[in-house]
Design a protein that fits this description.
Radius of gyration of chain A: 29 Å
Number of domains of chain B: 1
CATH topology of chain B: Rossmann fold
Strand content of chain A: 15-25%
Number of strands of chain A: 14
Distance between the termini of chain B: 36 Å
Largest sheet of chain B: 6 strands, mixed
Number of helices of chain B: 8
Radius of gyration of chain B: 18 Å
Largest sheet of chain A: 10 strands, mixed
CATH class of chain B: Alpha Beta
CATH architecture of chain B: 3-Layer(aba) Sandwich
Number of helices of chain A: 12
Structural class of chain A: alpha+beta
Number of strands of chain B: 10
Strand order of the largest sheet of chain B: 6-7-8-3-9-10
Oligomer: heterodimer
Largest interface: A-B, 26 and 28 residues
Shape of chain B: globular
Helix content of chain A: 40-55%
Order of helices and strands of chain A: HHHEEHEEHEEEEEHEEHEHHHEEHH
Number of domains of chain A: 2
Structural class of chain B: alpha/beta
């Protein structure tokens, strides 16, 4: 809804000089430079708002990146019907082989069953405890995910209590770092022997160990949480889903892996994005008021100049456009400062609880061209709205009254 | 303002400061005011500034309007210039009836017909002299190169071609007023209205400005209508009119 409005506004402004004889832009630019302090304070206020706005968009990008990067189009996730997440799903071992049957399944290591649990661990910095997601996978589970790269240490040996940890949470919890160990249950330790990366996805916030060892530790040898199936082609999904979901021997839900993670990211993304957006909107009201005060001051200070321009023949529309341009330029300058400053956030890691798994995932603020473009649009819009009333006021200045001022 | 006009002006200009009586020999009126009244309101109390005023200003004349403060001089000037509207009466300037014009039509008309010279110069402080002079030309369809030529010509006429890129704060009062005059003539207006053009100047600068206005009237045939308190300035005009209590004497 907002995009078409912004597009119309952009076309309006780009074409305005064609039908309105405008006051030279140098007039506005130099008028801003003459009032250095006021201009700077207003621009910094807008920069702060754009920083918050862009930060919230970058966080949303970060969530989408982390949670959806883990999903592949040619892979499906099978959960027990009624479950929304791996954590709440349980599938008997006897079904795993049945999922391999349909012709759409890739025969090269195409099916893995995994168990997913959450353990509570103390934070390494001593500030309380949080949940960590532990994934137990069969020996071919590592090969199933080619994005996995060992960053340090070595791969765990099958059938042992060795595990590897994602780089996102490595070292953030006591015992969860290469060379350390933590307990799944009392006297059931997992020994971390390596650290891995997975294209920045949410896997980097997990601990991966041996399926059977982890199940045995929990006394759940007969079930897995989910089954992942690699299809021959992404287009095979519908046929495969129909086959599995219509099979009367079991009651399963089949999702594309990408959709599964998309759905997982939605709640978190909406929540955090909404919080950020709400903060940005509140801040933007203050910034718009700031811009309006600045531009009102400018109008009051330059009444005689406006009167002169009107006397020389510049129309009300020209004056309106001139002051709107000035407010927009001022705001865009603040926007550019904000967009530059917000780049620093990409260096920050943010631990957040995933609502679906109740475990901690580590996000990064993600820079994207769309985020920057939206942020600049937002700053321009603030300038337009904040400058609108002062510009209308300027356009209504009577040249006769202005000369007496 | 064409190059030819500028050359002609340069050739025939008198020496600066030389007395000049102006011209009063226009054959037709460029300004015709009929039964003009103007009433302002202070709260609910009406204040009648102009009372059924008639005025004919011949084309090509240089006229001065004098009168005590509050006599309605500036109001009359503003009505002639299309900046203000009378409460009643008809205003015809340079062949146009200003009464029915909308605000935007009046603005366009002003940009093509009127050159303004103000007491306080009213230059835009953040623009250079050349940019100030160029302002009226931005309302025309002239190319950038043509605008630059016109600006250079106007600045030569006011003998400030070496101050083109100076800002107003870098100029003396007299120079600022000459830049304002260059701005007033750059789009070749039919009539120049001047509101106390020497009011903020010392005697020497005022003489220079008045001499320049005489040249514009005599050599470029510009009609000049000047409001002034200064008898010495009025003396340079061809016709001096006196306004008192809203009526011409």
């Amino acid at each position: 809804m907002l995009a078409p409005i912004l597009l119309v506004l952009m076309v309006f402004f780009v074409t305005l000089p064609l039908w309105v004889r405008s006051v030279p832009v140098q007039y506005n630019a130099r008028s801003l430079l003459v009032r250095k302090v006021t201009t700077l304070v207003t621009a910094l206020g807008i920069a702060l708002v754009v920083f918050v706005f862009a930060g919230s968009l970058m966080l949303r990008e970060g969530i989408n990146r982390v949670l959806t990067a883990a999903g592949r189009a040619d892979t499906v996730v099978i959960l027990r019907k009624g479950s929304d997440a791996e954590l709440s799903s349980a599938i008997g071992n006897e079904y795993i082989g049945l999922f391999r049957g349909p012709a759409q399944v890739s025969q090269a290591g195409g099916v893995i069953g995994e168990i997913v649990i959450v353990v509570t661990a103390d934070r390494a910095d001593g500030f309380g405890a949080s949940n960590v997601l532990v994934r137990g996978m069969p020996p071919d589970g590592f090969a199933f995910r080619p994005e996995l790269k060992l960053a340090s240490g070595r791969m765990p040996r099958p059938g042992t209590n060795e595990a590897i940890v994602g780089r996102g949470i490595s070292g953030r919890f006591k015992g969860i770092a290469p060379g350390q160990s933590f307990e799944l249950r009392r006297n059931r330790p997992l020994q971390i022997v390596g650290e891995f990366t997975a294209d920045g996805s949410s896997y980097e916030s997990e601990v991966w160990g041996d399926l059977d060892v982890i199940r045995r530790s929990l006394g759940r040898e007969a079930v897995v949480s989910s089954v992942r199936v690699r299809l021959n082609r992404p287009e095979d999904f519908d046929a495969y889903r129909q086959t599995i979901e219509n099979d009367k021997r079991f009651s399963m839900k089949v999702m594309r892996e990408a959709d599964y993670y998309q759905k997982q990211s939605q709640a978190l993304s909406t929540f955090l994005g909404g919080m950020g957006l709400a903060a940005a909107i509140l801040f933007s009201l203050a910034a718009m008021i700031g811009a309006a005060i600045t531009m009102n001051g400018a109008v009051a200070h330059r009444t005689r100049e406006i009167g002169t321009l009107r006397a020389l023949g510049f129309s009300r529309r020209s004056i309106l456009l001139s002051f709107l341009t000035e407010a927009t330029v001022l705001s865009l300058a603040g926007g550019v400062i904000g967009v530059i400053a917000v780049q620093l956030l990409s260096l920050v890691k943010v631990p957040i609880i995933n609502f679906q798994t109740f475990s901690e995932i580590v996000l990064r603020f993600q820079v994207a061209p769309g985020v920057l473009a939206w942020s600049l649009w937002f700053s321009g819009l603030m300038g337009l709205l904040g400058g609108l009333f002062p510009a209308i006021r300027a356009s209504r200045v009577s040249p006769v009254e202005a000369m007496r001022a | 303002m064409s190059e030819n006009q500028m050359t002609e002006a340069t050739k025939t200009a008198g020496a600066p400061g030389e007395p000049y009586r102006g011209t009063t020999t226009g054959t037709e009126s460029i300004v015709t005011l009929s039964k003009i009244t103007k009433t302002f309101f202070r709260g609910s109390e009406p204040i009648r500034v102009l009372e059924g005023l008639d005025l004919d200003v011949p084309n090509g004349s240089f006229e001065a309007l004098m009168g005590p403060s509050g006599s309605g001089k500036s109001t009359l000037l503003n009505i002639i210039a299309g900046l203000d509207r009378p409460t009643s009466g008809a205003v015809r300037v340079a062949g146009a009836d200003l009464g029915p014009m909308s605000d935007s039509e009046l603005a366009r008309w002003r940009s093509q017909t009127i050159g303004f010279v103000f007491q306080s110069f009213n230059l835009i402080p953040v623009l250079t002299a050349a940019q100030n002079v160029e302002l009226p030309l931005l309302l025309t369809s002239l190319s950038r190169a043509d605008r630059a030529r016109h600006v250079a010509t106007a600045m030569r006429i006011v003998s400030l071609e070496d101050r083109m890129h100076h800002y107003p704060r870098q100029l003396s009062g007299g120079q600022e007023q000459r830049v304002a005059i260059a701005r007033a003539i750059v789009n070749d207006p039919k009539i120049i209205v001047a509101d106390e053009p020497t009011g903020d100047l010392d005697r020497k600068s005022a003489d220079d400005v008045l001499t320049l206005m005489e040249r514009l009237n005599k050599e470029l045939k510009k009609t000049i209508f000047m409001v002034t308190h200064d008898p010495a300035a009025a003396e340079r005009a061809g016709v001096v009119r006196k306004l008192d209590k809203g009526a011409l004497q």
